[in-house]
Amino acid sequence: MDESSQINRLKNGDKNALYALYDKYSGALYGVVVRMCRDKELSEDLLQEIFVTIWEKIDQFDPDKGKFYTWAYRIARNKTLNTLRKTDPLIQKEDMGVYNDIEQEESAHNYEALNGVIKKMEAHHQKVIELVYFKGYTHREAHKLMGVPLGTFKSYVRQALVQLRANYPLTLFFLSMCLDVIDHG
Amino acid sequence: MDRKTILEKGLLLNYLLGELNAKDEELIESALQEDKVLRQEFQKLESDFERMALENAIAPPQRVKSSLEKTLTKYDNDTPVKSLSTSSAFNPARLLVAASLAAIFALTSFWFYNQWQTAEENIRVAREEKEQLQESLQKLSEEIQEVNAMYAQLNDKDVIPLLLKGNKLAPDARAVAFVNHKSKSVVVNPKALPALSEEETYQMWADVDGEMISMGLLPTDKDLVALTYIDKAESLNITIEPKGGNDHPTVERLISNIYL
After folding, report:
1. For residue range B185-235, what is the model confidence (pLDDT) as tens digits?
2. Would the CB atoms of A69 and B46 count as touching at under 8 Å?
């Protein structure tokens, strides 16, 4: 079953549609959440909360504005960052302080290691994607963490996005576009 | 906002991440609606990130899904149950709370009543003690006044102390009489007189022109005894008399006398 009809069923209160979307995206969202909060137990609670929110707020999702996963990612990111700020308002600052130890920490937490195309990128490009996407830092926070000026950081981001594009063949994009067009009818 | 600005500032990524404020978000959304090229650019960005996220997926434990299913089941059932329970007229939990509050109120009231009664009793006792103390104080001050008066009498420069020694009948007997002719007073210290039986007492007499006039009794348990001053007395005499004293002295039992 395609995604848009799953979403329509979800909007009509079909829990099985939610579980199907869970099967498809829970791993990706859990990957983001667990890298952000570095606490498996908390991440599990958050993941459940994220899908409850999706269930409650699916009516607010507008497919014309973007993909379901993008919408779900925003929910996951906001919920996780809000929880972290509530539990420890200094957590972001602490992370900044121990930035030099991040490499060591990553080896300690295997789940934080990144896979796929991003691994083929240059280290600083990997880092910017990791910081803004998987750690939830704003550009202003992230450039300080990397110790580069904001302008340089933004350049790194642009370059990283280009690399990401180059590594995902255009054909795939068109294929997915075609699928989307078919889905939307 | 035009395409060039949006792309140069990298705002599509900020929009994707959900970092923009409401106003900028609205601007980007309307730009995306109007600009097909920009829309395609955003769709590519979404696809790239989705793919990257799927590549970096971490399978959550099965218990999360089970817990989610459980939560959603409860979620479904919760609403009607809640409304029923709130509309219910009889609520045992509320009754329990009310009963507990009443019990607490009753207990505290009883406790306060007890405290009040105890306090009242304490006040009553304290009042009684205070009255007793006042009585004792008054008694003491009266005694002090008496003693002071007597002391003043004894210390008066006009006082003549007279030692009455016992005769053959009572060779160890001693008494001291303090006579003041100016103030016309007599005080006697009878402590050194030998103790008598309960049926007897010492009595002092003044001899005026051969007639013995009673000056008063001399109880030996007192330090000082004030007696009646008799004018023109020629001598003082002590006799042993029956309890309560006598109208006439028993001369046979005269134990001491002194001439003035």
Report:
1. 899 999 889 999 989 999 999 998 888 999 999 998 888 898 999 999 999
2. yes
The H-assigned helical ranges of B156-224 are none
In this complex, is the C-beta atom of A78 within 8 Å of any C-beta atom belonging to chain B?
Answer: yes
Contact at 8 Å (CB) between A142 and A132? yes
Helix (H, G, I), strand (E, B) or coil at A39: coil
Q: How far apart are CA A127 and CA A143, in angstroms?
A: 10
| Cβ–Cβ below 8 Å for A117 and B49 | no
Residue ranges of domains in chain B: 3-55, 62-152, 160-259
Tell me how close the Cα of B45 comes to any Cα of chain A, in angstroms. 8
Please give the CATH topology (third level) of the domain spanning B160-259.
Immunoglobulin-like (2.60.40)
Cβ pair A45, A87 in contact under 8 A: no
Count CB atoms within 10 A of the CB of residue A103: 10
For A14-50, b/e burial (b = at least 16 CB within 10 A) is ebebbbbbbeebbbbbbbbbbbbbbebebbbbbbbbb
Q: Which residue in A has a C-alpha nearest to residue B61's C-alpha?
A: A44
- How many Å apart are CA B114 and CA B116, to the nearest integer? 5
Q: Give this complex's ipTM.
A: 0.81
How many Å separate Cα A79 from the centre of its chain? 12
Q: What phi, psi does A70 have (nearest 5°)?
A: -60, -45
Query: What six digits make up the tokens of B122?
Result: 């304490």
Say what the pTM is.
0.54
Burial of B1 (0-12, 13-18, 19+ CB in 10 A): middle
